[in-house]
Amino acid sequence: MLYCWRISLLLITSNPALLALLTKLITKRLFKSPFKVKLKYYKGMKDENISEVKLVDLHSHTTASDGQLTPSELIERAISKGVQVFAITDHDTTDGLAEAHQYNNNHETPLELINGVEISTRWNSFDIHIVALNIDIENQTMVDFLSHQRELRATRAFEIGERLAKAGIEGAYEGAKFYAGDAAISRGHYARWLAEKGYATTTANVFKKYLARGKTGYAPNNWGDMASAIDIIHQAGGVAVLAHPSGYKLSAKWLKRLVREFKEAGGDAIEVVLGQQTIEDRNNLIALTVLNNLMCSLGSDFHFPGSWIELGKNMFQPQGVNWVWQSDKWKEAQ
């Protein structure tokens, strides 16, 4: 038997065509992509020279939601980082945009500021966020919808505080409210207070210990479905973008399903370039846009200054990609 194996290996290695075929079959079997797309096409794509294209960042937050910079401070920082096309996308509110536009218009080197909002939805028990870009913030349907979203946030925030209090963590609601100021209280505000009080070393660890699904301080929400949110975005003249798809920690099967159903619900684009991600993740997300005939967007999801996430940082623009800001739909919205 051993002799036969040696003869077989000798025949294969001495025949270049046969060896190439075997290598191809093994490689295809061992390194099969979870997506039904040949990703080698995208692996060969090159990033645009950043000096030859506009620096774009279409996902950020201010103190109007769970960010730590005021709208004016955020605009100043974006300009200082060289961002040229910029969107503020606070959670379920557009309250920070008036101040942002005023500051930007009075700046010596203003950027192109896009009206945006990040809308919370529910899909198969997952919290899914949809970034609305180029919206009319005075559209009454959108105004009424965001007002309802704020009410849902208030109810959930109070319930989180009650759950933490029952677990022996008193004063959490008041602490989160202090950090929120005039904004709706979010889990991010709870995380800041809990980290400040020493319940965890970082806000990220707070989420893992107290605020993630199944933990002491987690409270379910009553967000609407994706299709309803997308319809309202379109009524407001905007473009609907699936935010940070790989951030939901879904399996490849579920991620493909999410993107497919987002498209079926009327979605326009997905974020394929994030503040921190692997090249493989970026390639997979681009592949999903091709599979589902969706446009591509990008954004840092900036909340506060730090070395991990920064405005405009790693906002690569691979060549040959159908970018949302270059589309006819984007131009129509403007």
TrEMBL record:
Record-annotated Polymerase/histidinol phosphatase N-terminal domain positions: 56-123
Protein origin, superkingdom: Bacteria
Sample GO molecular function, one term? 5'-3' RNA exonuclease activity
The protein's name: Phosphoesterase PHP, N-terminal:PHP
